[in-house]
Amino acid sequence: MIRTHARPITLVLTALALLAPAPAARAESDDERSVRPEAKTALDSLKGGATLAKLSPKEQIEIYEDDAKEGDVDAQLALGLLYLHGEGETRDTGKAIDYLEEAAEQGNAEAQATLGMVYDQGIGVRPDAKRAVEWYERAAAGGNAKARFNLAVIYRHAQGVPENLDRAIMWLVLARDQDYSARYMLHDLEGQLSEEELRPGREMAENWRPPAGR
Question: Nearest Cα to 103, choosing from 63, 68, 129?
Fold first, then answer.
């Protein structure tokens, strides 16, 4: 059997209940939450000119498994997403979380953000705001814009954590250059709040530095 090492490139997944909502006149709590993180999968050529993108999820899983066992972080992420968004026998939330955690512990911000979403939205598990925030914070520290926006929503609307307007503004400022929803929400807040109310969060963003090791 020919072994093919998968090397991911960006692919946006369209999973059930994971589509990011279009901005409304004013975003509200869960409806404004960005829950459609970009995922990665492989499109390398296989025998006969086929690509992984043309294979069934089950066939893709078989391709990735050996690399994931060897500690390949991209393969672990890909398997986590395949199991999370699969159907029938290829949908297994337990395996998805296991593979995502393996990738996340290696510092993969996409895996960390996806785990935040899993616990935030209760995808196959009981919703757990504390664990969601922990994973979002790790992903946000790694530069993941969707995680930063989701944290802003959580802190703005006190969803499982005490309300913290300053932290919400900080994460919006840090995410706005990469995320349209963050720019929209920040613009909305700037129309509601005074400069005095906005200043602490803006200063926190200006002084923010990623934790050591990121």
Answer: 68
